[in-house]
Amino acid sequence: MIPLLHDFTGTTVLVFGGGTVGARKARRFTREARVVVVSPEFADTDFGGAERVKAAPDDEAVAEWIDRTEPALVVAATDDAERNAAIERAGRDHGALVNRTDRHGERDPGSVVVPATVRDDPVVAAVATGGTSPALSRYLRERIEAEIDGAGEMARLTGELREELQERGVDPEARREAMRTVVRAGPVWKHLDSGRTKARQVAEDVTSDVTGDIS
Fold it and tell me: What is the rounded distance in angstroms from the CA atom of residue 200 to the CA atom of residue 158?
């Protein structure tokens, strides 16, 4: 499988299954999408503001739900393997992406795996084990979370510096080398914790040393 990032803004994610797994999937997608969860009952847990509909659709009704909501992603998260298979077929027939939560290891072509994710916007890091070990995914996510603290601010800072160097006509290879040097500079990371102004000053000194360009 090849990992990709997908923007679900303005789309619908349709989740079948109101257990803890369905709730976890709902919480993941409500940050961007409209999420509808269809289930005959719901776990006593947080669904992240998703719309919950109490229903037990048969195969025909599943297809009707998909036609009605036109989801970008269908999540099959029931505790019935046959029902999940039917949901998967209906989602594929509609042309939607499908995430089937009871499948582990090898997946059918076109399957979607939702990885463990760490965010420090605009930086996103994700790790997946192909569904074979969610515990390992969570463990690695926790380790990555500690490692990328401050990465979002570093991304914004280097993005601004790169654009400014480009506007001043600095050679592309010199720009790339300058940004590589900045993101490896411990003093820049250190000052990101205490404030943007000092971090930017240190980063500008680093880029000037590399490019010879004085702003």
Answer: 9
- Please count the structural domains in the chain: 3
Q: Is 86 found in the same domain as 19?
A: yes
20 and 101 fall within a common domain: yes
Candidates 85, 48, 55; CA nearest to 69 is 55
For residues 131 and 65, state if they share a domain.
Answer: no
pLDDT by residue (tens digit) across 10-65? Answer: 999 999 999 999 999 999 999 999 999 999 999 999 999 999 999 999 999 999 99
Alpha-carbon span 76 to 32, nearest angstrom = 19
Query: What is the layout of strands, in order, in the sheet containing 97-100?
Result: 51-54, 34-39, 12-16, 73-76, 97-100
Q: Is residue 5 part of a domain?
A: no
Domain co-membership, 45 together with 101? yes
Sequence-distant (6+) residues with CB within 8 A of 154 are: 123, 183, 188, 189, 192
> Around 43, how many Cα atoms within 13 Å sit in the side-chain half-sphere?
18
User: What is the C-alpha separation between 68 and 158, in angstroms, rounded?
Assistant: 44
Domain assignment of residue 81, given as a range:
12-114
**Residue whose C-alpha is closest to residue 161's, from 132, 139, 183, 136:** 183
Residue pair 27/48 in contact by the 8 Å Cβ criterion: yes
CA Rg value for the chain:
22
**Quick check: is 1 in a domain?**
no
Write down the pTM of the prediction: 0.80
